[in-house]
SAM-dependent methyltransferase (Streptomyces montanus), 276 residues
Amino acid sequence: MINSSVPHSARIWNYWLGGKDCYEIDREVGDQIRELNPEIVHIARAQRAFLKRAVTYLAGEVGIRQFLDVGTGLPTFDNTHEVAQRIRPEARIVYVDHDPIVLAHATALLTSTPEGATDYIDADLRDPAAILEGAGRMLDFDQPIALMLLGIAAHVPDDSAYGIVQRLVDALPSGSYLVFCDSTEVFHPKEMRAMVAQWNQASDNPRVNRSPEQLARFFDGLELLEPGLVSVAQWRPAPSEAGTAVEDEPEAEDELRKAEVDPQEVDSFGGVAHKA
């Protein structure tokens, strides 16, 4: 059951991305956090631009045709399947989230090209066995898979997050990739700490910031591609790329275009790594 009186992280993030699937309480909390940390909206949009660049690279240059996107969030624009299937119409994408808000909107994630397929699993990152079991119904674990973990490990605030991610990576076949990013306190530590404190006070889904050194542990045993673990806006910025138009959301589209080409450093670090 959806409670519109309690703020939800997925709806707040959707609000920052320029989406409209949010309630007044989400906008209020989102604005409070934005006052504490004006960079948060830029972080959200830079992270979405990072997703687009990473998926474009993996589907285009590498030829990956399978994606497992955990911590999907509410559908907005340039979702993983849209980016991947523009390049590889036969791509198969499995989305994972445990938020009832996201589940209610999952049909928007299940559109697909005739050649490809999409699926949605109602599961928690903390239960990798359930994720892998569900993903196995659509994805071929004998073929390379791109595992997408964008801004989700922060919601497992203790060190168990490392074991959870390792469990998922271990299940991937050789030739697979990990696309990962999460929040840091490198450029605006005071604001990022205040943001997390406000978020944890208002939301039912607590989170934590980690240092780049702590985030690097998620890539243990993998080969980080150039330029390594960096601020997501610095990961292969592509000025020739442009955001995808979305009806009735010209402002959101414009902001995504800016994030796509703006190499400004933001407090979200990420990278793409190969599993040999």
